[in-house]
């Protein structure tokens, strides 16, 4: 492929990242990609929801905006399908046409729908449609009628997908199992983290025994963490837990902690940058019931934070050779036992174990590699489109002979 200013497939690309909520690991992923792509000379823009994320999302988007030649577009997006989705699709189509975008990259289930279903306006070539799932619908109640409906929708949407850029082998496997093998480009592009994140965290003066960082909802396994904490305290370990995050089940979780007699043991705080929080706890606990490739595990492992996590999703990919240390989900007894073992471990042995995990993560989860692999995926999708045979001519539209 010869690069030229007239070739829509030639870098620099004009990329629109489309997703719903500017929160959590998905937003971090887009934020990192946007910065990397802009630094590589590409024009980048963001389209996301206007009603989630609060002041923190607004601040992060404002900090990112100098890197975004194609700007930030925020408009109301609902989590579940509604007629308002048609208006969102129309806005995305108009923005893509006005900005000359040649890559629409959808993130998460809703962003994937928007990026792949938005119509093409104008006479130019259609942009390629890339999709990065982040767990979402693939993990939602497998075996149920609703999950089958979601996977049926993914099967139809796959027809409008030029590149699947899965962030974990786990989600790629789920796609193959529930949607079927893809006829389009499929790549595993693991989340990556920056070299600075491998610096150890300096412990704070006042610390909690346990940390939880993430969404406050039952699907993250928080009830099982509370049960494990209660059993450890009943066994004579007066442990404390700092929970940092927000979510739809926040009030229910607070009430559950109070009903379990844990009011004085559990402290709740809103979302905030992870490294200062890691400094305030001895052990991070990730009790999730389902995940893709969570940044909180990558970030904690890189910083050599003592860490306990469940054996779900892509977490074993992060732990690598140490995956046998993961605990089964939905098992508060196993979670409590794992916490007790880390607490009782000799400090030198604990330090060596988590230093080894950090070094393993360093070799396999590079932010620079992530950015390069995504751009390589775009380029491969353009090449595949160029190499595809032309669409068949319908009999009624066949050119007339002269």
Automatic annotation (TrEMBL):
InterPro entries: Glyco_trans_4-like_N
Residues that span the membrane, as ranges: none
Domain Glycosyltransferase subfamily 4-like N-terminal: 23-193
Stated name of the protein: D-inositol-3-phosphate glycosyltransferase
UniProt source species: Methylobacterium iners
Lineage: Bacteria, Pseudomonadati, Pseudomonadota, Alphaproteobacteria, Hyphomicrobiales
Gene transcribed to yield this protein: mshA_13
């Amino acid at each position: 492929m010869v690069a030229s200013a007239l070739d829509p497939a030639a870098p620099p690309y004009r990329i629109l990242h489309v997703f719903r909520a500017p929160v959590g690991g998905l937003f971090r992923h887009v934020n990192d990609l946007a910065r990397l792509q802009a630094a590589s000379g590409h024009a980048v823009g963001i389209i996301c929801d206007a009603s989630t994320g609060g002041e923190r999302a607004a601040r992060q988007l404002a900090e990112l905006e100098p890197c975004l030649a194609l700007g930030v577009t925020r408009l109301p997006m609902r989590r579940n399908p509604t007629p308002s989705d048609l208006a969102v699709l129309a806005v995305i189509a108009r923005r893509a046409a006005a900005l000359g975008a040649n890559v629409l990259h959808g993130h998460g289930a809703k962003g994937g729908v928007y990026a792949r279903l938005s119509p093409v306006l104008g006479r130019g070539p259609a942009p390629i449609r890339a999709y990065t799932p982040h767990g979402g619908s693939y993990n939602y109640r497998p075996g149920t009628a609703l999950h089958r409906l979601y996977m049926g929708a993914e099967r139809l949407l796959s027809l409008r997908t030029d590149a699947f850029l899965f962030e974990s082998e786990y989600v790629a496997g789920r796609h193959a199992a529930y949607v079927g093998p893809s006829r389009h480009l499929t790549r595993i592009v693991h989340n990556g983290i920056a070299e600075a994140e491998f610096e150890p965290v300096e412990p704070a003066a006042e610390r909690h025994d346990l940390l939880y960082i993430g969404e406050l909802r039952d699907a993250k396994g928080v009830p099982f963490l509370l049960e494990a904490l209660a059993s450890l305290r009943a066994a004579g370990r007066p442990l404390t837990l700092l929970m940092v995050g927000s979510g739809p089940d926040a009030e229910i979780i607070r009430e559950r902690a109070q009903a379990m007699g844990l009011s004085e043991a559990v402290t709740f705080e809103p979302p905030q940058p992870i490294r200062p929080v890691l400094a305030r706890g001895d052990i991070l606990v990730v009790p999730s019931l389902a995940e893709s490739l969570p940044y909180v595990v990558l970030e904690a492992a890189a910083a050599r934070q003592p860490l306990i996590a469940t054996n779900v999703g892509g977490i074993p990919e992060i732990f690598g050779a140490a995956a046998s240390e993961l605990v089964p989900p939905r098992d508060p007894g196993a979670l409590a036992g794992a916490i007790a073992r880390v607490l009782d471990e000799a400090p030198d042995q604990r330090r060596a174990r988590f230093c080894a995990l950090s070094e393993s993560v360093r070799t396999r989860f590079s932010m620079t590699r992530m950015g390069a692999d995504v751009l390589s995926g775009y380029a491969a999708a353009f090449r595949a489109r160029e190499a595809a045979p032309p669409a068949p001519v319908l009999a009624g539209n066949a050119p007339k002979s002269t």
